[in-house]
Amino acid sequence: IYKLDPSGTVTLFAGTGSSGNTNGDRLTATFTNPISIATDGSGTFYVGESYGIRKIDPSGIVTQFAGTSVAGYVDGTGTRSRFVQPSFLTVHPNGTLYVSDVGATAIRAVDSNSDVTTYASGPGSVTGLARRLGVYGGFNTGLRRSADAQTYYAGIDASFTGSLLAFSVSPGAYVLGGIPSAGGSLSSSAD
Fold first, then answer.
1. pTM of the shown model
2. Do the Cβ atoms of 123 and 82 come closer than 8 Å?
């Protein structure tokens, strides 16, 4: 994992260049296909890779935060949880990590204790507004949060034509609305 500073200088941030799942100091730890990285703003980084999420703490120590090197779709704590392809990450100011688990067509939430829960959708099931839109491809094109950290946007169109789902994290899990790629209008839904 490389770091690009404001002056354009690229330096090694973490990893050795060899594939693996070794924890420890960030410069001796190994990663397998790091896909996405997010920070909580206080020096902790989260790296989505293959089937899990690694944590790099402010002192530079890498640990397995959630999931393992084995694919699966299991909610649970730490390494008892499983991911299929944790491809997009973002951190809420309260410390909750939201993960677009592309392979599982799900948005997963991971709290500071490494408790993983499915926040929206899941393999083989698309619920609520996504079902009414006829979008069955899952959340697979990104995950971003608004400046106020209350609304999150997830791409949901398997054909990559630009459909978007917006959902709120406060006061609870509910769909705000969607923007289908073909245009049209949608009303908000609290499901």
1. 0.73
2. no
